[in-house]
Design goal:
Layout lengths: L6 H4 L5 H51 L8 E4 L11 H4 L5 E14 L3 E3 L10 E12 L5 E10 L24 E4 L9 E2 L5 E4 L3 E7 L2 E18 L2 E18 L9 H4 L5 E3 L4 E3 L17 E2 L9 H7 L25 E4 L5 E4 L2 E11 L2 E5 L4 E7 L16 H16 L1 H6 L9 H6 L10 E3 L12 E7 L4 H12 L13 H5 L5 E5 L5 E4 L5 E3 L17 E3 L3 E10 L9 E4 L8 E5 L6 H5 L1 E10 L9 E8 L5 E6 L2 E4 L8 E4 L7 E8 L2 E11 L4 E2 L10 E22 L3 E7 L13 E9 L4 E12 L3 E10 L2 E10 L5
Parallel strand pairs: 20-29, 30-40, 36-41
Antiparallel strand pairs: 1-2, 2-3, 2-4, 4-5, 6-11, 7-8, 8-10, 9-10, 10-11, 10-27, 11-14, 11-17, 12-13, 15-16, 17-18, 19-21, 21-22, 23-26, 24-25, 26-29, 27-28, 30-33, 31-32, 31-34, 34-39, 35-37, 37-40, 38-39, 41-42
Protein name: Prepilin-type N-terminal cleavage/methylation domain-containing protein
Organism: Agrilutibacter niabensis
Keywords: Membrane, Transmembrane, Transmembrane helix
Amino acid sequence: MTAHRSPRLRNKGFSLIEILIAVVVLATGLLALTALQGSLTKASAEAKVRGRVAAFVAGRMESLRNGPYDSIAAGSDTCASTVAPDWVPASVCTDAAIGSFSVTQTVATWSGATTFAATGPVSDPRAAQFKRVTLTATWTDANGSSHSLRGVSDISPLGMVSNLMVPPDSDTSGGGAPIVREDNPVTAGMIPVALGDGSSSAASNPKPELKQDGQNQRIVGTKFNMLNYIAGGAGSAVIQKRFENEIVRCKCSMGSGETDTNSIFYTAQWPAIWTGDRYDVYVPTPASTAAPGQSVTSGPTNGVAQSDLCTQCCRDHHDGTSGAKYDPERTMTTGESTGREKYSRNSMGQYVISTSNYIQACRVIRVDGFWRVAADTYSRHFGLLETTPVSSVDARSGIPTTAAKDAYSTFVKDYAAGYQTTLATDLGTAPTNADALFDDNARGLNADPIVVATPNVNNDWRYLHGRGLYVDYLEADARKRIKDILADNDNDGACPPSKPKYDCILPYLPFTTINMTEIAKWLAEDDHILQVNTSNLMSSNPSEPFGGRTKGIAQGDSLNTGSTRTSNSGLAVYAQVRDIDNDGTPDVVTREEFGVDPLDDTTLLDDAQAFEVGTGAGNNGLSFYLRVAGTGLSKTARYALGTDQDDCTTPATGDIRCVTHATAAPMAGTFTLQNYWIEGTTSASLPTASCTNLENGNQSPPANLTVNNKPYLNNLQVTGVTVVSGTGVVNSAMPVAANGATDGKTSETTTVAFSNASADAVFQVQFTTQGNVTGATVAACTVSKSGNTWSMSVSQWNKPWEN
């Protein structure tokens, strides 16, 4: 007989082995949790200790930053030490979790000019320097394990409050010169001047520094940057040099200099001078010679709202009998014995030599990160440039015309070339021919009279543009630098015979051209004819500046004259500002219009702009008219009668009116037509071989790419001139150099002679298309790739019609 066991009875209950395995797993887990809890408790205690040590190190570093720079030195401290200085607080030493606590403080002094290096202690507070402080804390925990924590910070001698500086890449190497790229820095109102090394120089439009003065504000300084840059492509620029400038006007007091702050604040310094490549603080021989201002201990007058930079201005701007000077071109005037006297103004506005309170104007420039008082800047020329018409109305914008900017740039270069002569005698004095160069009629810099047809029209403001050319005095180092460049005149030298002298000189000449429109003083010759704004506010809109803004209010002729002083005070602005009419726009209430000494007020540079206001504006003679017919537009019409030549008035619509000097009809003379061409753009496929490849050569672009802005010229010609109203005889219509050097060029002109013309005769000029010039070629271009698409950008074209 066979027995059978139920399957369900075979699966009931646990075996002894299974129970043992479960007990082992549970015990292991419980032991792991116990160990984890212990680790967490230990880590929490260590974190608490490390946080307390970190707080101590941060507090110690903050204390060093807020304390005297000169007293920062290496040292150490422990809980066991009671000898001063005792850094370690009792709260750290009594903590049971911290044992054998000690702190080591190491100090490395970094100094330099263009770059910084660890040079060791520097005793001269005038040197560009900072101290790198390293605090290393070490301690043991309750188990005897060692721990450490380290903090590093750089402390500047100018650090009155927390003043962290970013360290270089490592603790043992100095920082290199960074590559600074930005959008093209040239904005409206700026005029770049090309330097001979492929870069350009331009000064930004001046901006005011404002300071609170009671319930109002006061303009206490003028800021601008001088930039050297090269085009970076696609509307960008690589900044090579940037010089931050501020011109401040200060009220100073003898004997009131600071003595209870860091020594750099009360140690007078020598001027920052141009060395030929950069601005640097002058080092006398011997180097330990104190600056002349050290014996004066001058400082800003208390209770006066003025720039914080007046601390440096009042302290430093004092000249001795030797060494570099702040005002090297100053000469003595009546009543002076040294030529270094300081002045104040009495209640009558007269200059009085002062040994207590005095007026000073300084140029402060950033050198190696510190504000330094620089040698005075000197204005070599002040001139007015032709401003841009809007809708054929003269001077409706304060931006100079393109032709005026180009002509002014050439003027600056030609003036700079004159230094070759003065440097030959090792004097380096500034050439004195600036006015003659500017007024040369061939340059076209002297603008024609601004015509205001109807006087006293609301908001019919006309805008001017005043331009100052400034060149520093050349100290010995700068003279030598430029002379060495000029002497290196071999064919493969720095200044070969084929290179214009200004291209050799300009990169090493401390020059700038500044938009002076908002800074200059403006005066109407006849204020019954012209209303001129004299309360400049330094508007942020150079196309509609406050300075020199002019409106014709009555019929007649008058001049608006702009003027400026030749040195620092000509650039400084000191004025009270408030909204006196409650229209939300600040107004200048008072503006102090004087310099710092008698010669400063009597040595002025000026230029005048003529205005013709009212009926017959532009002349008092008879008129004739030009009417354009056919293709194109005569952009500019000029006429000449005898030896007189002026611009005709081109309205937005209708005929061109030319007012002559003839007082009786019939009239005879000539008029010259120019600019009868139209430039346009078209699409074209262009080769990429000569372009810069932004893929850095890793990928080759296509052989040709399409651009949409290839220029072409719609070339026109004059085919006929007839009298369509009134009477007159056209004697000739002859293009200048017809079919010759200027044919097909933008410089082509046509001169028309006429006789027996009645008053208000209308000459109709017929234009026809002569042919298209499509030969523009690429001068500079780049190709780039976005995804799978290549594109080509042309930054410069060669236009044969402009040659």
